[in-house]
């Protein structure tokens, strides 16, 4: 009976877990976010005034 073979279920669980981890690592490290361009805009004091 296949239900009574815990070794095969353990092997399937380990294989699935490893495949899931490899899939997540590949997807995570394949994404390269765009680096933000450095802009030299200073914050003016007029824009910092509170509008009470």
Helix/strand layout:
Layout: H1 6-30
Give an account of the 3D structure.
By secondary structure, the protein is mainly alpha-helical. Helix content is 48%, strand content 0%. The protein is elongated and about 75 Å long.
How many helices? The count is: 1
Question: What percent of residues are in strands?
Answer: under 5%
State the total count of DSSP E strands.
0
Question: What structural category do the secondary elements indicate?
Answer: mainly alpha
Radius of gyration: 27 Å
Unreliable residue stretches: none
Order of helices and strands: H
Q: How confident is the prediction overall: mean pLDDT?
A: 77
Oligomer type: single chain
Separation of termini?
76 Å
Shape: elongated
User: How many strands, what sense, and barrel or not for the largest sheet?
Assistant: none
Q: What helical percentage do the residues reach? A: 40-55%
Protein name: ATP synthase complex subunit 8
Subcellular location: Mitochondrion membrane
Transmembrane segments: 6-26
Membrane topology: Single-pass membrane protein
């Amino acid at each position: 009976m296949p239900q009574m073979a815990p070794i095969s279920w353990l092997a399937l669980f380990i294989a699935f877990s490893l495949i899931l981890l490899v899939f997540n690592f590949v997807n995570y490290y394949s994404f390269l976010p765009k680096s933000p361009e450095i802009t030299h805009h200073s914050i003016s004091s007029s824009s910092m005034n509170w509008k009470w």
